[in-house]
Amino acid sequence: MQIRPDNPLIIQGGGKVLLEARHPRAEEARDFLGRFAELEASPELLHTYKIHPLSLWNAASAGMGVQEIVDGLRKWSKFDVPADVLQTVQDTVERYGCLRLLPHPTEPGRLLRLEFQTGYIQKLVTGAPALRELLVEDGKRTWAVAPGHRGIFKQRALQSGWPVEDLAGFHEGAPLGLELRPTLASNDKPFAPRDYQWEAARRWWQDGRPSGGCGVVVLACGAGKTIVAIAAMALARTRTLILATNQAACAQWRRELLDKSTLRPEDVALYTGEEKAIAPVTIATYQILTWRRSKDAAFEHLHLFEDQDWGLIVYDEVHLLPAPVFGATASLQGRRRLGLTATLVREDGREGDVFALVGPKRYDLPWQVLEDRGFIADTRCTEVRVPFAAATLERYNRANEGEKFRIASSNPAKLKVLDDLLRRHRDDHVLVIGTYVDQLQEIARRTKAALITGDTPHAERERLFAAFRSGALRLLVVSKVANFSIDLPDANVAIQVSGSFGSRQEEAQRLGRILRPKKTAASFYTVVTADTKEQEFALKRQLFLTEQGYRYQIEERAAG
Fold first, then answer.
1. Is the pTM of this model over 0.85?
2. What is the secondary structure of 160-189 as a DSSP string?
3. Which domains does the chain have, with CATH numbers?
4. Average pLDDT over all residues of the chain
């Protein structure tokens, strides 16, 4: 066995990889691992990664081959790479492209041709009952799929270990004249997408080839995913449906489109709970698409997917796609699709459905690269650990497991810490973010700050956000409604007082509220109750950001 003690990785059988977090070359090794493996645990000294099939297939779709992965593992490992890991990498990566969907040569529009790399693979695929029932025998040696089964076939194939390379092409949709503006409509300043924004759009588009025009772009909050979408729309030049997380995000999309493209106000409509208009570019919320009168009723607004001759559907915050939209997307595989997200992590484990139905990851730029280039803010992350007062500790110890997290999250001792942090940042633009409304109401009363929750009317939310942007308000208390797609460029401090259990995506999105580039470093605080369920979940929440290279300083507070 060859031993290289100066290397930072220990690769174990079964695909587990350990990274020495304080090794001088840890960042280089982490950037390599992040392209095809997932961080599972991040204690202070030793981070644990797992090589998963889906992460390998995303890497393969982005052009990363077996040899590049194998050579990299050997380069960074302290010991010989286990043979089973090398074999798994080869077998898994080489499965991408073994099964392809193509336009049918004789019956276009009625069938899609399946192409198998070998006869043995054809036998395996056609012998799987879940796949066989969707197949149409197309002669003695060929098989096809009905266009309406294109999505469900890809879902089932992925679940069976066969990622489909979809080369069947797309319906062009109604044409849309759209160009990027050379100057912003709002202030006539010069405008052009950054190099990485154009690169992301071009990788998604792939020169209009059958494999292009579908997939996911992963960029940090504040890095300009909306501009990537506008560039993609300029390449596709087709009627577009944009799906966003809430009404504020829809309004923000409309402002960006009118500011940075040649679209006119009448070309862009909102389809939300407050107004339901349709135009060549229509922006809708996920909430309106999944609204129904009762749990047994039909989804009344899913018809929007078919109401226009859409050629492109944009999924903002694609990691949040609700199940009914997944279902609708399965039947929309003939339309081009662009997913935008800061993290592909889904807490429900449906990353595979994003891969199969929206498309593979086309572009991913590490957050630290963006920070180093000045495109997102230099950010310091701190976890402040607060003890319980004696009476609250006794209540916590008596509570059942389900109640303990809520008690720890609402620890009254956090209020004194909050007071200290607000004094420390009295001259900054501060967001106090939490999950529990009663806790946030108490904080708003205590600090005399404005509060935004799910019950705040849309017009009032917009007024308060605008006041914060203008500097009229320097402190804003917000619930989870502000987790996504809210542009607050001057926010430079976020104080998180409670979160949603171990949600990695929420941690990333909340940090994203302060990532717009600025002259001074931003500060992100997470206040947790020490030695409780909340501290355990905080470690899980931080996993994605740790993978991106962020480090949390620990600040211990004494009792009282």
1. yes
2. TT--EEE-S-----SB----B-SB-TTT--
3. 9-95 (no CATH), 99-166 (no CATH), 195-365 (3.40.50.300), 375-556 (3.40.50.300)
4. 91
